[in-house]
Amino acid sequence: MSSLDISHYKEVVGHYVTGVVVITARTAEGPVGFTCQTFSSLSLDPILISFAAKSAGRSWLSIRGAEAVGFNMLGADQVDVARVFATSGIDKFADVHWTTAPHGSPLLEGAIAHLEGRILSVTTHGDHDFAVVAIDFVQADAGSPLLYYRGDFGLPG
């Protein structure tokens, strides 16, 4: 057990700027997704990415067993999309336009890049799961990324 104050810890690590990704999948119950900032390229040979999700998150629990998972790198103008997919207990896809990736994952319109792949492994660390995904589809469009910094979207200005 750490003696660090959690709120102070969050304030300190909040100084690290991240991009914002919405992770999606199609399940028997329909499309699901959640907003994630803990996402990174892991390997080039083979092409792997990694991300972390709250172990008990409802959307993650649905996505975890999906055949394919999609990654939508949000553009700077998609703060509302990020907030919707960060909210629990709502139909996140109700007002969001999307298309389908080659293996069925929802790709959100307006995102500046998309990836799709299959989850290879999941390990639990603390209150989060760490997933490794083999990527087999990528596409990118023009635009600036949505950033997350010190507990909010964008940089101070």
Q: Give the strand content.
A: over 45%
- Write down the Rg: 15 Å
Name of the CATH superfamily: Electron Transport, Fmn-binding Protein, Chain A
* Helix-strand sequence: HEEEEEHEHEEEEEE
Number of strands: 12
Uncertain residue segments: none
- So, CATH architecture? Roll
Determine and state the CATH class. Mainly Beta
What is the approximate shape? globular
Question: How many structural domains in the coordinates?
Answer: 1
- By oligomeric state, this entry counts as single chain
What does this structure look like?
The protein has helices spanning 6-13, 58-63, 79-85; strands spanning 18-19, 21-27, 30-36, 39-44, 47-54, 69-73, 98-100, 106-108, 113-125, 128-140, 147-149, 152-153. A hairpin with a 5-residue loop joins strand 7 and strand 8. The mean pLDDT is 95. The N and C termini lie far apart (37 Å). The protein has 157 residues and is mainly beta. The chain is built from three helices and twelve strands.
Briefly characterize the structure:
The protein is mainly beta and 157 residues long.
Topology:
Elements: H1 6-13, E1 18-19, E2 21-27, E3 30-36, E4 39-44, E5 47-54, H2 58-63, E6 69-73, H3 79-85, E7 98-100, E8 106-108, E9 113-125, E10 128-140, E11 147-149, E12 152-153
Antiparallel strand pairs: 1-11, 2-3, 2-6, 4-5, 5-10, 6-9, 7-8, 9-10, 11-12
